[in-house]
## 1
Amino acid sequence: MEWVALAAVSVLVVLLIMERERSRRALREERGFFDAAPVAMVVLDGNGEIRVNARAASVLGEVGLGRDSRDLSTLLDADSASLARRIGREVLSDATRIQYADVAITARNGAVLNCDLVASPIEFEGRPAALVVCFSVEDREAARTALRQSEERFRRFFSDLPVPVYRTALDGKIVEANDALSELLGIDDPMSLRGANAADFYVNPGERRVDDRDIRTDASVEDRVIQLRTTSGRVVRVRDMNRVVVDDGVPMFEGVAVDVTQEHRFLEELERRAHQQETLAEVARIALRGTDTRHVMTEAVHRVAAVLAADCALIAQDGDERDPVASHVAYEIDSVRERDTIHDYIVKRLGEAPADTVEDLDPADEVNGVPIRGMRAMLAGPDEAYGVIAVAGRGFNPTKQDRDFLSAVAATLGIAVGRCRAQESMIELMRSKDEFIASVSHELRTPLTVVAGLALELEQRWQTFSDGELSEFITLIASESREMGDLIEDLLVAARADIGEVPVYPDLVDLRVCVDQVVASCSLADRARISVSGEGINGNVDPVRFRQIVRNLVTNAIRYGGTRIHVTVGDEHGRALVSVFDDGSGIAVGDRDRIFAAYGRAHDRQGVPGSVGLGLTVSRKLTELMDGSISYRYNRGSYFELQFPLARTPVRAD
């Protein structure tokens, strides 16, 4: 047990030594702070002993007195020492009392010190004491000078900062503003900003609204982008970073306002370009997948108008401005009259746009004083223009990127229209091919059936037929054979025309004689419907090819024309003219442009076998090879008119 007691005593001794060492260290730190203080300090205890620091000793004219305790009478004259003891007693008598005094203290050497005293109770070196801090007039003036210099340096620093800095009251009144902020707002004198209300510069004053949530006392920074309007009316975007500070108990906002207008415009332009590229890709996808041209155009104009922020967008095809194939009008325009004005403006300017370029439309009409502007671009195909796309709007001001975007959309739609038309042509070609095969089969089978049937009858029972019957059979066989031959000749001409190998041999030919020969080859019933007029006209034509042309025109009139057919031979304007007329209903206006195309047919008369659709195509090709022309017109009947060089005209032989 003795060793346990010995250990306990040892631990206690160690703890006492550690506590004593901590006390000594704290005392050294306390004395060090007191002695090094830049202001004069005096400590008074209850016995009237004092301790002064180095600064107090210097002020009182006694150097090196900061280490020793001494009576006041060693430093001050009797009156000053009495005053100091009284202040000390009053402070020591009330531990919560702080004394302030403006006094003149006289030192033992006769020096008079005017100073401000501040006395407060403390515990110094473990004993109650009164701490008297003495501020001399010289120190006070020096402090004031230093403060003014510091404030002036801060003011210059604040004013010269390149970033706009401000302080505002909670009600928006501007308390401080530097030169950069006044320059941002277009104000020459920064001092004139003081007292102005910050809300007056907000584009949206509601953004300046202050509520309880804005009074942040945790020094947190609010970071937001706002729009300000300068004195010149220009709108700038500003990144406002502010916090709430409390100055003399009054909360206020202080912050910086960085001009991010150019950065915002750059980001907006990047977003705009990205949106345009995304829309262009979307239009391309629609165009690639779509088979309905009108649907593709409608989807395109909606997207183009949205991307370009245009009030109206239209697409017209094949020069028909009166009936746009697709249109978009912004329905956020309240007035129907305003929508009609913008729509009419763009329709009037839908005309053909320059190839491979985007053309701006001149401003003309106005809506509520705002001019309407626009631009247009051609939907160009490989060999032709398919139409025009145009956009317009109030105050519309397209950039180069906008023009490039519209040009790319127009090119995409041109490709889409060409692809759709190629598909339609392919479908039509496949249909025509099927009809062609069926028609050829029918056209060849009909005369071939007649020839084969009559030949079989003659082979098996020729001796049973009379001479008249035999003659009729032979005539029918010859007629049907000629029809087959004519059809095969048309097929050969069409095939050779594609590779440029159709031979023609122009000669001096009496066109009336050739016409009579064609009519004579028709059946008796058909000849009864046909009349011929005109004297003999000599033309430079290939007689075989000329008769082939006339035969096709007469056959076409017999099959699809009226009850009366009339062929006229004559001359007009120095050229030979042959006209084939029938009193039928004619060819529909929409079909007249395609009747000369291969496999094109404008008639589908019930009870009449379908033709191959090559007759008019072959006729035009042969006519052109003989330096002639063929045309169609309707005037109370159908007229197919041929024109060829007269005999005195030099002939081109191919």
## 2
Amino acid sequence: MLAGGRLRGYPRRELCSLLLVFSVAFAARLAVWRLIPVDWNSDSYHHWQISYLSLKVGFPRWRMWDLNGCELYWGMVPHLVQAVLLFALSTASIVPYRVLNLLLGSVNPCIVYLIGRDNFNREVGAYAGLLFALYPVCGPYAIILQAIPFTIAHFGKPELETLSCIFGGSAFGYVAWRTRSFLYPFLIHWFIATLTIFVASGALG
């Protein structure tokens, strides 16, 4: 059983971690929205059309509606949610749904963080959450950006190890991205750490 002080501090630490991941994801997506005022996914406007026409034409006939005949091609839930927003806010604008997508897109990395934390540890969860928070808007450059907290986490360790982390963290992130697996960077890191211990202890002569 956890000690009393540690147990009391646990929810606060988790809340801070979740807020960090959410804030990074939200800020990145908001910055892209400000720089690119239109939705870069052209399908978004087709989805809006289905929602709007379903609200105005389809629902009175108890069906979905689309000029291209694709009202049932995609899942209906997003169109129904957007139609509810359009009706509730008395608007024809796509902006409310984009705001909802921005918020939900910022929550997804938090879920990734929790999965990494529960299956490995908080450090793995944080790196995975930050990578997932940045990748949709930064692409592969997110690998370099997520290596920054990886480096900061090594402050206080030998200087060479800390300085090499920006390159090592980027390399590990690249391997995980290309292989779509956490296993390979884990094995590489384990091998390097084990070799370093053996060399430092003089066990290899």
